[in-house]
User: What shape does this take?
Amino acid sequence: MSARASRVVLAAALAGCALLTLNGCFAAPAGPDGKAIAAEIEEEVAEFLVEADEARQVRAVLVYHDGEPIIERYTEAGPDDYWDTRSVTKSVVSTLVGIAIEQSLIPGVDATLGELLPSYAAEMTKDVAAITLEQLLTQTENFPEYLSPEATFWESPDWVTTILAQRSAAGPGDGSFRYSDAGPHLLSAILTQTTGRSILDFAREYLFEPLGIPTEPATEIVLDLGGSADRTALLEAFNNADFAWPVDPQGFNVGGALLKLRPQDLGALGLAYLAGGRSPNGEQVIPETWVAAATANHVDQFGYGYLWWTIAADGAPAFAAFGRGGQLIEVVPDRELVVVVATEFDELDPDHDLKSIDSNELTALVSSWIAPHFAPD
Assistant: This one.
């Protein structure tokens, strides 16, 4: 989109901000300066995407400042469309762990796999049973790296058993950081067993509903990829669904990816973290202590908290949830800023990785194009 076209879009948006397809809208901050800032950001985002999103897969860019939306830009999509959040799911799971600890359903981050998953004791060596919840949250438990040939649990008939058996066979770990889907999926099993309900049901009551995130109707998808299920049919059902959070063959919601949400739902989570865990009406939804702990740096060489990345934006401390293919929630507390990006990512498209926008480009969008507008005088 050219700068001139973007200005035309902005004029139309100011006139009405109706459902959008190839344009954007904003609720500008009060006063002429606020409107000018919003217009500049809208134009700069459009210019950035021309260069960074050559395949035109980005479907939404939302910018919130001081708790209010100032940019809501949708491309070939609308605010009620759902997208695969990919690994942003991990940060949602982390949030649920914090809520469960606050409710004393989980004793704390020092609890071990042996304590938290006693029904799987036969699959664990002594070393694996001693892995702590904190190691799972910081990805320092040494499960196979994401997308590595060793990460085969997705196609097994029992994901949790396979994850634990493979890790036990690998021998003692060295505590190094390895980004993996395995640990977050164990967190799903832990939450299910400690709360006595699926993490979706737990999330509905204690996270999604308090933040105004709708989850009904939910499309039920069982990822029995090692059985007789048709993988293409499963992925087509997932792509066509609105809200969905698929489960493994044992019924555990996928912990590392595949939660489908609307961009505004990601915004609600980011805004809650910006507000110390509180909803817009002031309810303490996420424990404030968990917000601080989850977004603090626990892995110095990589900048990683509890399934949140710790980064910087225009020199200011920030934290982010990234998802494969171009998914983002980034929070810059000192600037009162939350940025959300939702990008279409279709596993059935053989060129999906070539079409993707990566996390470095997304952080550049925030750091170089958006955050400077809110720098202190």
